[in-house]
Amino acid sequence: MAERVLFYNQINKNKRNSIFLVIIVLAILVLIGYVIGMALGPDYFTIVMILAIIISLIYVWVGYYYSDKIALASVKAKLADRTQYHSLYNAVESMSLASGLPMPKVYIMQDQQINAFATGRDPKNAVICVTTGAVEKLDKSELEGVIAHEMGHVANFDIRFMTLVTVLVGMIAIISEIFLRSLWFTNIGGNRDSKDGRMQIIFILIGVALAILAPIVTKLVQLAISRKREYTADATAVKFTRRPTGLINALKKIKNDQPMKSHRVSKSVAPLFLSDPFKRKVQNAFSTHPPIEKRIAVLEKM
């Protein structure tokens, strides 16, 4: 008989793994800063870092305070009418009471695929967006399971966590881009016969390699974090509903559901959803979500 998995053990395990992955992103950011400093020298380093800090701060501010509005606008979601979507509001209110969290704003997205996502910077400013397909195709228990999963993201501060990771990935991409462009104005190597000149060339080559590879690596880390957080939210949903059957049945329906129309969602927003909106068959390091079969298997052990 398979060993049962306690939901709080699953939550703690995935939280530890996610923190480890964020440390990797921060380490890459520090390494890039060090290499840039060694490659460009004190004159260019100061200018580049000032520009990088200013651009990064603007990026952080916009991303942190307006991430929910950007995500909702990108999928053309609208505030759900309480009368028209009373079953959806009942499910959200029920899971809000079960979780002890403030009632989030409820949005609806016009698409026949069963899906949903949560966004916002904290539980007090949380938003849950659900597709019309989810409201129409799921029964009460299944819809509550989906909402509980999204409330799990809110309760675990995944919405803030993923915003932080996205910002860090964006900062690395920005700093890498600035570094590559700054090389056009740099006196590379200076006196190539001197020890300092040779060292500068070495660090510039390392810096170029990092500037090209770091955004790719951090993007892979971001997607890995996204996959880990789905398992955590699944486990939290079981905590809120006290049974895994609703979410399991919803995931089974999602597995056999149609892909979302590509013009309705961008690839940058895809990791937010309950399941991969594009229904990509091949699972690899660039996948936004873990396989539905594995998620169901883990839930069945709870």
Description:
- Helix 1 (7-74) crosses helix 5 and helix 7 (245-255) runs antiparallel to helix 8 (292-300).
- This protein has one domain.
- Strands 1-2-4-3 form a four-stranded mixed beta sheet, with helices on both faces.
- A hairpin with a 7-residue loop joins strand 3 and strand 4.
- The mean pLDDT is 79.
- The chain has helices spanning 7-74, 86-99, 132-137, 140-155, 158-182, 195-241, 245-255, 292-300, and strands at 78-79, 105-109, 116-119, 127-131.
- The protein has eight helices and four strands; from the N terminus they run H-E-H-E-E-E-H-H-H-H-H-H.
- The protein is elongated.
- It is mainly alpha-helical.
- 65% of the residues lie in helices and 5% in strands.
- The two termini are 13 Å apart.
Helices and strands in order, then pairings?
Blueprint: H1 7-74, E1 78-79, H2 86-99, E2 105-109, E3 116-119, E4 127-131, H3 132-137, H4 140-155, H5 158-182, H6 195-241, H7 245-255, H8 292-300
Parallel strand pairs: 2-4
Antiparallel strand pairs: 1-2, 3-4
